[in-house]
Amino acid sequence: MFLLQMGATAICIALLPLSYVWIKASDDKFRKLVWVTTFLTLDLIMFGGFTRLTDSGLGCPDWPGCYGTASPFLAHAQIAAAHAALPSGPVSMVKAWIEMIHRYFATAIGVLIIAQTASAWVARIKRKSLHVSPWWPTALLLLIVVQGAFGAWTVTLKLQPVIVTTHLLLGLTLLGSLAWFAARLTPLPAYEPEIARYRAAALAGLVLLAIQLALGGWVSTNYAVLACTDFPTCNGQWIPPMNFAQGFHLWRALGMTGNGEVITQDALVAIHWTHRTFAFVVIAYLAGLALKMRRYESLRRPATGVLIVLALQFATGLSNIVLQWPLPIAVAHNGGAAVLLLLVVMLNFRTASSRLGRAAVAPREAAPA
Known about the structure:
Keywords: Cell membrane, Disulfide bond, Heme biosynthesis, Iron, Membrane, Metal-binding, Oxidoreductase, Transmembrane, Transmembrane helix
Helix content: 55-70%
Protein name: Heme A synthase
Membrane topology: Multi-pass membrane protein
GO molecular function, one term: oxidoreductase activity
Mean pLDDT: 91
Strand content: under 5%
Subcellular location: Membrane
């Protein structure tokens, strides 16, 4: 019964953006729906970061409900008992609500992607052109099912770092895939075939960013942000003592080594130092690439966005260290990484489209935004 209640809650949430698309969109409701879903997925990733950073991931220690109910309201007695038994533990009414709101929101995104999939296949049956294969939203639906499974394992395996990091990376993969999908439905700027030569460089930038996102996720899920307490050195040294074998042993419990012992400070330093050092490689490469791409009209806006977000990411990353990891800045750093991914995906899409010598949607056939 509680699953039906949770499903009804998610549908009610999803009805808000669906109503917006139905009321506001002109002839191209499908494109609007994909863009709205992309924006809400970005919001979900940021709220997921907030959930993790507030230690709310186990606010409801079962899945998908909260102590077998659809709402923390209904689990008030169990939550109160768990909090009274361990006041400093992961369970409290506030944390339970944060965790459940995240789950409601994630399920609502699933409802929106189901709506995309159904619309695309109905259009195929009716022979109505959407300028994209219905297998695109179908693949996204499968991706969000896998993402949901990792969300469940995040709770049942007690925030095991490799599971939480994979959950984050799958969310970012969903965001990037939605952005690419939305771009395919949107008219491109003026055709500039010469930007096709940047295709390989843009792809390399995306790969470097993906590695950095994985390293950042590993820092966050291991709570290694404050392993280095100064900058540009780390604990007063350029190359501090580090234990890479412990730090990058993947299958282990949170705060523990692969042998079941408490993880050492040197292991946490290795995690932090690797992410910090590789950040300079990513910043240098993407900044240089964006400066070159700004010369082209069709790439100017996303390239400028990359430069701005890189600067903000450096500032928020440094502030996390200097200001001892304040929650708003930590959430902003997580969100900035997701926005940077969106921009780099846009650069890859536009260079790839120019190489193919076509627009995503013929401007004369596309509905106005």
